[in-house]
Amino acid sequence: ETATKGGYEHYMYKEIHEQPGALRRTTQSRLNTHAGGVELEEFPPESFADVKQVHLLAMGTSHHAGMYAASLLNSRGIPAYAFMAGEYSVIKPPVTPDTLVVAVSQSGETADTLDAVRRARAAGARTLAVTNVVGSSITRECDDELLIRAGPEIGVAATKTFSSQVTALTLLTERIVEDVTGAKSPEARDLMEALSRLPGDVQEVLDTSMAREIAIEYEGSDAYFFIGRGAAHPVALEGALKFKEISYEHAEGFAASELKHGPLALVTPLSPVFAIFTGHEDEATLSNVKEVQARGAPVIAITSDRSGEVTEFADHVLRIPDTHPDIAGVLANVQLQLVAYHAADLLERPIDKPRNLAKCVTVE
Ligand code: G6P
């Protein structure tokens, strides 16, 4: 077992460090940085030309990747909705023949996601599986598949597969936009360049992260909160999910805009707040930072801080390289993976096999 952990104490830590390689495989031969386009050999030209709306169905971490993709698609004018697959199964699927249903599942075996996709298909939707596992059940249930190529993941808490899911879904988003509108999005060229730099940027986070110091500083807090807007909202949810899964500490993620509508009542000097800045809507998130600080909460900003303004207000900064705002969330998430890992490690939790949780849930 030591051998397969490659000298790391836990699979999770190993898999966090495997992300540069995983992302290289996810994007390999799919990026055309020269033309600013995406090349997905699975899909011939105009494959998505008829798509009018996109539904993303998934559970757990994969649902957060689905939310991320929905945020990008909506920002480019393609109506998109992320559903928890288990909830999609209790409604009449709101699909039309022009709906593309994207099922996101690392394992390809999650019962709720399989059930939801079957129902969507029966209702007439076209279905596409985004998965890590070749030949998994979801690839047989769906019309098409897009592999994320992250490599095997053993730790129960998903890490590298989230980064690869978000990256693959970002490529899919650009491809859908190109087919639907007949032109590349204005973001495409910069985004493809940023994606080609992403493995190196993740490596930089891994090499320079101060996450362990933050975990030590805030050990023993009452609760840990995570906030973000737009595509940083699912990153906040994912940061909290990782933290609670492996540390067993109380952690919650919120849309930064939601704070005033309830969560602010929970904020005290003993509830550090992790605030995610991606370069989109940073001003608004900064005003939320000031609100929680006024209640005495320490703030840890995850930011590349182009303006210097965030650093001025935050109590601590977990720095990420400057990149395209649409994928900055991947880098922020790596910092949050490391915070969760170190917090759980300090508490000597069984990181690779947290109590009551399974890598793959095959019952509804
Ligand atoms: C379980 C795992 C999570 C995972 C979720 C969905 O809850 O512990 O890490 O995100 O299932 O799994 P899937 O294989 O469908 O992505």
Automatic annotation (TrEMBL):
Residues 44-183, 214-354 form the SIS domain. The keyword Transferase applies. It is found in: Cytoplasm. It catalyses: D-fructose 6-phosphate + L-glutamine = D-glucosamine 6-phosphate + L-glutamate. GO terms for cellular component: cytoplasm. One of its GO terms (biological process) is carbohydrate metabolic process. Keywords: Aminotransferase, Cytoplasm, Glutamine amidotransferase, Plasmid, Repeat, Transferase. One of its GO terms (molecular function) is glutamine-fructose-6-phosphate transaminase (isomerizing) activity. Its EC number is 2.6.1.16. The active site is at K359. Catalyzes the first step in hexosamine metabolism, converting fructose-6P into glucosamine-6P using glutamine as a nitrogen source. Homodimer. This is Glutamine--fructose-6-phosphate aminotransferase [isomerizing]. The lineage of its organism: Archaea, Methanobacteriati, Methanobacteriota, Stenosarchaea group, Halobacteria.
